[in-house]
Design a protein that fits this description.
It is built from 2 helices and no strands. With 72 residues, the protein is mainly alpha-helical. The longest helix has 25 residues. The termini are far apart.
């Protein structure tokens, strides 16, 4: 898994987790609450795990002022 993909999935999980957790807590629905809490845990751990993954096969993305193709 690419590091960018892992961090994007983590961000989506964290953004999704808070409304799901809130809905489960206010409605008294335990399975929805547990799903929200699992999203928080997985979304928080995924960037840490991605840091220690093998990124030797990841594609290099050129970024910076020297690669900016816009007319200035």
């Amino acid at each position: 898994m690419d590091k960018l993909v892992a961090e994007t999935v983590a961000l989506i999980l964290l953004c999704l987790a808070f409304p799901v957790t809130s809905k489960g807590a206010t409605a008294g629905n335990l399975p929805v609450l547990v799903i929200g809490l699992l999203c928080v845990v997985v979304g928080g751990v995924l960037p840490i795990v991605a840091r220690f993954m093998d990124h030797s096969k990841d594609t290099v993305r050129d970024a910076g002022v020297e690669f900016d193709d816009r007319a200035s």
